[in-house]
């Protein structure tokens, strides 16, 4: 499973990138607003750092303006994936940009039917939002499973990009289901390293190091 990092914070992307943990980046208007940076400038800097796909989201609601925004965003770098919402206008924009050879990430997906439409419209990525379904007592992981089944049934090439990931367990669950990509905030990716028995085991080793005066350097 590829790891995308869901942030527009350059320093955090760089830290994970240096460890080989970043196969791509996703941003959205909320993350850009949080960064306090200009969307075109910060997106360019991310694209200069990361070779993999960098999702940059349109902000218009109508297809004509979305298309113009998408074409402008795509000019930032070759690794831009234009992110469009899963609305009818978003699907129209997806089809046109995909036909022009531009990667498209269709976001705000909350149903298998929406994912089916995005695949038909030529999306490179579909972004089902796990956490926001869980928030309303629905099952986000079940949606990932359903989309996996549907795409595999018909050989759709659209990649499942699990999004709105809130916990480290979401990451391993997505990997078990076979999501192609999971995008998560840096803190969630880092939390994957945590285990209480690792901490406990290390504390025991350190006590013995102290007791026996073991030195390597
Ligand atoms: O990848 C989508 C993500 O940014 C949304 O996450 O936690 O706001 O639902 P969240």
Automatic annotation (TrEMBL):
Entry's localization field: Cytoplasm
Reactions catalysed according to its record: D-sedoheptulose 7-phosphate + D-glyceraldehyde 3-phosphate = D-erythrose 4-phosphate + beta-D-fructose 6-phosphate
Primary role: Transaldolase is important for the balance of metabolites in the pentose-phosphate pathway.
Swiss-Prot/TrEMBL keywords: Cytoplasm, Pentose shunt, Schiff base, Transferase
Protein name: Probable transaldolase
EC class of the enzyme, as a word: transferase
MF terms (GO), sorted A to Z: aldehyde-lyase activity; transaldolase activity
EC numbers, comma separated: 2.2.1.2
Pathway: Carbohydrate degradation; pentose phosphate pathway; D-glyceraldehyde 3-phosphate and beta-D-fructose 6-phosphate from D-ribose 5-phosphate and D-xylulose 5-phosphate (non-oxidative stage): step 2/3
One of the record's GO cellular component terms: cytoplasm
Active site positions: 83
InterPro entries, alphabetized: Aldolase_TIM, TAL/FSA, Transaldolase_3B, Transaldolase_3B/F6P_aldolase, Transaldolase_AS, TSA/FSA_arc/bac
One Pfam family, short name: TAL_FSA
Family: Belongs to the transaldolase family. Type 3B subfamily.
Key word Translocase present: no
GO biological process: carbohydrate metabolic process; ketone catabolic process; pentose-phosphate shunt
